[in-house]
Amino acid sequence: MSSDEGVQITPLRAADGRGWILEGKTRQADDLKKEYHREAMAAFRLRKKASVEDMQAMRAYLERQLQQRLELRRAILLSGFAEEYGDDVDERFLRFQDAFCALVDEAELYRADNVKLQEQIESHTRLRLLLHFELGLVRLPEEDSSPSSDGGSSPSPELRGFFTYFMEHEPPFYYEPFTQQECDAIVDTGLQVALDLLSAFDNKEHGMQEAHCLGWRAQRSLQRIDIGMGTEGDGPAVSRVRFTKSIQCRKENTESTMESLVNFAWEVTTTPKLYARIHRTLLISHPLQSMGDDREILMRNTPDPTGAVNIRYFNLIERVKDTTTEGHPRTTIHMLIADSPRHQQLRELDQREDVLWMTEGSGFISFTQTSDESIEIDFSHVAVCMNEMQAQYFLVELGAMLIRWENLVMPPRLLRFD
Predict the structure, then answer these.
(1) Origin, by domain of life (predicted)?
(2) Among 26, 209, 266, 358, fewest CB within 10 Å belongs to which?
(3) Cβ–Cβ < 8 Å for 316, 183
(4) Band of pLDDT at residue 50, cut at 50, 70 and 90
(5) What are the pLDDT digits (tens) for 320-356?
(6) How many helices (H) and strands (E) does the chain have?
(7) Rounded CA separation 222/207 (Å)
(8) Is the CB of residue 285 less than 8 Å from the CB of residue 272?
(9) In this structure, are residues 353 and 210 in contact, taking their beta carbons and an 8 Å threshold?
(10) Residue 208 belongs to some domain of the structure
């Protein structure tokens, strides 16, 4: 029978994780514990020695700094500075030192200003080159400067390009106004997109889902785009969203109520400050072009959860009055993304890699007098999103924006049933 027979040895993990402690009732167990203690103490002494060496190195560095300062002061005193000024050497030395520090600070300020001026010079040089390039493309013969018989071919000052800013701290960009014909073509395309969007929701295409929230009927579908690069579930997708709601009003006030709703909705959509109020994130609207009472063009950024404003687009806003197939009067405010080959070329010349441009997408909000006492509001939107996560964010953002829009445009008295 072995001498260790009947002895229970239990391994326990050390508190600092460096080894095992063996608890037992034999001399062998005690020896193991002592061995572990020696190893732990040796490691502790090594760590303490390293810490002491670090402190000694820091002390040596500070002593060298002090020695350099003392040598500098001694050199100044030996140069005759003290003899010239006598007992006031300390005070005058401090003034001299303060003056020297002030000169160093001033030099640093000049250096920073020089860097900023260099950046401005580069920006102005780039602007001048772009301006010369654009002037070479513009041809305005003298014989074409007078009004022509067809009433639309003569250039006007309103249609000439100009430089403007989206944000004050950014470099300017060159904007060429859209022509009437270009806007008409964009609106025609937008009207067809709106019809296709309503048809898709009425026929419940593309896996349409439906829910009800705060009096609104919400419909949504997400159609993924197969680009053949193995991006299933994370590739681009077409997001379609529709919110509808019917409000009640007095029979004798239906027409005036609808007109006031349309006018206020138009004001909110085209006024930068009001449009920013209905969004949770930073949204900038920069007016570029006004083409009558029912057509405006602005430059805007898309909502972003991080507050970035680098995804932008030209927003053509059009107000259209018509009737439905049932003969109900309807007014629609279309919000279309405007683009043209000319503007695409200008973006390529601008070479702003940090700015992304949206060229597809549209939305509208319509007001329809469905009866003598009710008005139906329809807000629909379609856009191509980079991935499903962005589409989900746009859905939530549109819903939140619509609630803010409702509180801003429709007073509570318009929501009560009489």
Answers:
(1) Eukaryota
(2) 209
(3) yes
(4) confident
(5) 999 988 889 999 999 999 988 888 888 777 777 788 8
(6) 8, 14
(7) 7
(8) yes
(9) no
(10) yes
Percent of the chain with pLDDT over 90: 17
Q: How far apart are CA 20 and CA 305, in angstroms?
A: 51
Structure tokens at 126: 């780039």
User: Would residue 6 count as lying in a domain?
Assistant: no
* pLDDT given at position 4: 44
At 253, is the secondary structure helix, strand, or coil?
A: helix
Which residues are CB-neighbours of 286 under 8 A, at least 6 positions away?
164, 165, 166, 272, 298, 299, 300
Range of lowest pLDDT (73-77, 162-166, 344-348)? 73-77
Tokens read off for 184: 């008409």
**Confidence check: pLDDT of 51 > 60:** yes
Cβ atoms of 301 and 319 within 8 Å: the answer is no
Number of domains into which the chain is organized: 1
How far is the CA of 99 from the CAs of 2, 78, 105, 107, 115, in angstroms? 88, 21, 10, 12, 25
Which of 366, 372, 365 shows the shortest CA–CA distance to 398?
Answer: 365
Residue 107 falls inside a structural domain: no
Domain enclosing residue 407, as ranges: 179-226+234-414
CB 346 within 8 A of CB 176: yes
Mean pLDDT for the stretch of residues 247-264: 84
Average pLDDT over residues 124-150: 53
- Give Cα separations from 257 to 19, 32, 265, 407 (angstroms): 82, 92, 12, 16
> What local confidence, expressed as pLDDT, does residue 111 receive?
84
CA distance 192 to 375: 23
Helix (H, G, I), strand (E, B) or coil at 351: coil
The amino acid at 404 = R
Handedness of CA 69, 73, 74, 79 (dihedral sign): positive
Tokens of residue 187, six digits: 């609106």
SS3 category, 89: helix
pLDDT tens by residue, 350-409: 777 788 888 888 899 999 998 888 899 999 988 888 778 888 888 888 888 888 988 888
Would you say residue 123 lies in a domain? no
Residue pointed to by tokens 């309503």:
198
CATH of the domain at 368: 3.30.530.20
How many CB atoms neighbour CB 201 within 10 A? 20
Is the CB of residue 183 less than 8 Å from the CB of residue 291? yes
